[in-house]
Write a structure and sequence with these properties.
200 residues; alpha+beta; Glutaredoxin; Glutathione S-transferase Yfyf (Class Pi), Chain A, domain 2; 2 domains; 5-stranded mixed beta sheet; 52% helix; globular; binds glutathione
Amino acid sequence: MKLYYADFTCSFAPHVALREAGLSFSLVRYDMKARTLEGGGSLTDINEKGYVPVLELDSGERITEVAAILQYIADQRPQSGLAPAAGTLARYRLQEWLSFIGTEIHKAFWPLFHDGAEIENQNARERLTRRFGWVQSKLGTQPFLMGETFNVADAYLLTVLNWTRAAGIDLNQWPQLKEYWARLRKRPAVMAATEAESKR
Ligand SMILES: N[C@@H](CCC(=O)N[C@@H](CS)C(=O)NCC(=O)O)C(=O)O
């Protein structure tokens, strides 16, 4: 498998998931600033929507969209616990989280990282503050988003929490969320993905 990614963007979530699952994969880096793809070619040749992540299977098939890629990775290693079994209520709960993180958190950062006007940035910070406050209330004292086991929703939540400092959002206002974030960052798979994306 091959993961097309850009440093510390949303593709960090599938990158972590691949390592958590213990799957073998290679990385192809997309440079967001230069808009170039490692090895040449254009990102739109790989994904006509023009963004990462893209997971290329050994068959040559490509999967796009964070939520779909995460679930594909998890399903390659059912024993890893990275996703509840398909068809169970717990699996729909996972999809609920992935959809929420993708549409209500990930995309809410957009103006903050794309020269938004001050009013848009202020609105984005307020919306994210409400969302993170709610997430903390759901997390409570459990170790992971869905209970006792790390799953791909945690990989996605960790990824967006990583963006808070750059976005001017202070995690100290949510002590449980901050503890969760700091703890997840110490997972071997997360440290390995961080190191791999830092040295390029
Ligand atoms: N809906 C997509 C969104 C993916 C997305 O927003 N990717 C960003 C990085 S987080 C990207 O590749 N942007 C390309 C660019 O701005 O050049 C998904 O869930 O995968």
